[in-house]
Amino acid sequence: LAAHYAALKDLPAVTPDGVKVELMANIGTHMDVDNAMNYGAEGVGLFRSEFVFMGRQEIPTEEDQFKAYKEAVEKCKGKLCVIRTMDIGGDKPLPYLNIPHEDNPFLGYRAVRISLQRKDLFLPQLKAILRAGVYGKVAIMIPMIINVNEFKEVKARIEDAKAELVHEGKSYSDDVQVGIMVETPSAAVMTPVLAKYVDFFSIGTNDLVQYTLACDRGNANISYLYNHFNPSVLRLIQRTIQSARDNGIWAGMCGEMASDPYAAVLLMGMGIHELSMSAPSIPRVKEMLRKTSSVKAKEVLADVMKLEDGDEIREYLHKVL
Ligand code: PEP
Ligand code: MG
Asked: Distance from the CA of 237 to the center of ligand 1, in angstroms?
């Protein structure tokens, strides 16, 4: 099996009828990049930058962050590296930020909500990412967006960061895409509008499933409800991909759903451009895409969208694929 997957490493994820899906890797540190490339990743679709902030006693400086991002970008050797700005809060607390106790951290002071209130955190991070862009192909991705205004503010902060870099005489890349995670139901519903402002969408199903189904992603008692094939979730995903296509931007997915080969077929049928996952999942997803035509995927998708229950959809997919 290992040899079989190794043979797939340098082959693209192309369907028999020629539809290509980019398969990328999720990483937590630059040390994960080489491993990702060994599994055939075509770049990094999610660098969870909060890990640069965790396991230390104080806020990492712009210079600390620049080094971490630059290493990852260099190791991508010209392939895209999507760096997500810090997603602290929720399930990832950070002691030195002294965030007051919250009854509902997943609904609380988290991710871009912190970034927009704390320029002292956000500007150094944006500057570090823009500087790392000089060493390869970088994109900035914003987590937990719920509305257009947040994204406009982010864009203003990026302009501030560039102005500071110019003032300080530091070189940076002006060719950095800026996109958002679609991981809240509000963002997914608003994708036709958000698509006019962003360069790309990446669907974060870990949170999107949790928020859509009001179902904690880590609670074993209700894990039977936590299903990425729930029809409501599938409709939000399809809407997001369609919004991207209608507006000429790309849509990807970086939540766990992207590593499910059966889901990958549905997503390919919906027209997704990119799937980002933990590196060891890449060969299995690639194998499934290489043997399933887009015509077949669209037929399966049409059938699935008529079904009314997530468990039923999963069973159906396992039967027909
Ligand atoms: C997600 O929510 O799907 C995601 C990729 O982000 P995280 O798992 O880091 O919350
Ligand atoms: Mg998330």
From this structure: 15
* Range list of H helices, the chain: 2-8, 33-38, 50-53, 62-75, 112-117, 119-132, 148-168, 185-189, 191-194, 205-212, 231-246, 261-270, 282-291, 294-304, 310-320
Asked about 81 being catalytic, the answer comes back as no
Flag whether pLDDT at 1 surpasses 80.
Answer: no
As given in the structure block, the two tokens for residue 312 are 């039923």
Q: Residue 91: pLDDT above 80?
A: no
Report whether 227 belongs to an annotated binding site: no
Q: How many other C-beta atoms are found inside a 10 Å radius of the C-beta of residue 223?
A: 12
Whether the pLDDT of residue 154 is over 80: the answer is: yes
Question: What number of other Cβ atoms are within 10 A of residue 135's Cβ?
Answer: 19
Ramachandran class of 237: left when φ > 0, alpha when ψ lies in -120 to 50, beta otherwise:
alpha
Three-class DSSP category at 226:
coil
| Stated pTM of the model | 0.97
